[in-house]
Amino acid sequence: DIVPVRSAEGRGTATEAVLVGFADLTAQRRVEQMRVDFIANASHELRTPLASLSGFIETLQGPARNDAGARERFLKIMGEQARRMSRLIDDLLSLSRIEMNAHLRPETKVDVTAVLSHVRDALGPLGRERGVEIALEHPPQPVAVHGDRDELFRVFENLVENALKYGGAAGRVEIGIVREGSDVVISVRDYGPGIAPEHVPRLTERFYRVDTAHSREQGGTGLGLAIVKHIVARHRGRLGIESTPGEGSTFSVRLSACPADDTKTSTKS
Ligand code: ADP
C-alpha cells in the first residue's frame, strides 16, 4: 500500500517519488499509532482509580460493613479517587479543546505581569502550606502579548504548581518576566532535585512522568506539560526546559510581545 507521489513541479526521480510516499505513510502510521497509544493510556489511567473504587465498594459491602473506622478511612480514599478521575477527564477535555483550536491564533491583548501576579496569588496558599516562597520579578512597565488570558494563566499555573510539587522542598520558587528584543520570556525556576537529561525531551508527552507514583501522590494526571506545550504552540511561542540534577529546573516560555508603546492592555484579572 505504498503510493508513489509525484513532486509538485514534476522534478525528482522515481526513487525520490516513492520515498516521499513512504515518508508520508510512515508519518500517517505514526500519528495513528500515537492516537491508539493515547486512548490505551487514557483508559488505563481512568481504570486504575475505578478499580480501586470498585474494590472499596465491595469491601464496604462485605468485610468492613460494620467497621465505622474503616468506613471513614475508605470513604476518604474513595473521594480522592473520584476527584482524580474528574481531574483526568477535565485535562483530557482541555487537551482536545486546545488541539481543536490549534490553528486559531488567540488575539486578545493580555497583560503578562497581571497574569503572573494572579498565578502567584492563586498558588500562594499551596506554597505557604509547603513552606515555599513564590517570588515574582517583572519589568516596571506592563508587558502585553496577544493571547488567550485563561490559557496563559493555565500554562503558568501548571509550571508554578509543578515547581512547588516537584521542586518545592528547597523553599523558593522564582518567576521572572524579562523583555528580550521584541519577545518576552517568562521563566519559572525551582531549586529542587532537577530532572535527569534523558527525561527532559519526553516531559511534554502525554502521561509521561519521571516517577508515576510520586506524580499520583501529588495529584498529577501526567497531562499538565502536554497541555502547556499545546497552548504555547497555539500562541506561536517556545517552551524551554533546562534542568541540572541536584540544582533545580527552569521552565521558560518565550512569546512575542506587543509593541511597548501600545498600552491598551486588558487589565482584568
Ligand atoms: P504531572 O501531572 O505528573 O505533574 P506534568 O505533565 O505536569 O504531569 O509533568 C510531567 C512530569 O515532569 C512530572 O510527573 C514530573 O516527573 C516532571 N516534572 C515536571 N516539573 C518538574 C519540576 N519542576 N521538577 C522536577 N520534575 C518535574
UniProtKB/TrEMBL annotation:
Domain Histidine kinase intervals: 41-259
Keywords, ordered alphabetically: ATP-binding, Cell membrane, Kinase, Membrane, Nucleotide-binding, Phosphoprotein, Transferase, Transmembrane, Transmembrane helix, Two-component regulatory system
Any one of the GO CC terms: plasma membrane
GO biological process: cellular response to phosphate starvation
The keyword RNA-binding is assigned to this record: no
Record carries keyword Transferase: yes
Signal peptide boundaries: none
Subcellular location field: Cell membrane
Reaction catalysed by this enzyme: ATP + protein L-histidine = ADP + protein N-phospho-L-histidine
Superkingdom: Bacteria
Molecular function terms, GO-annotated: ATP binding; phosphoprotein phosphatase activity; phosphorelay sensor kinase activity
EC numbers on record: 2.7.13.3
Protein name: histidine kinase
Species per Swiss-Prot/TrEMBL record: Ancylobacter tetraedralis
Parent sequence residues shown: 168 to 436 of 436
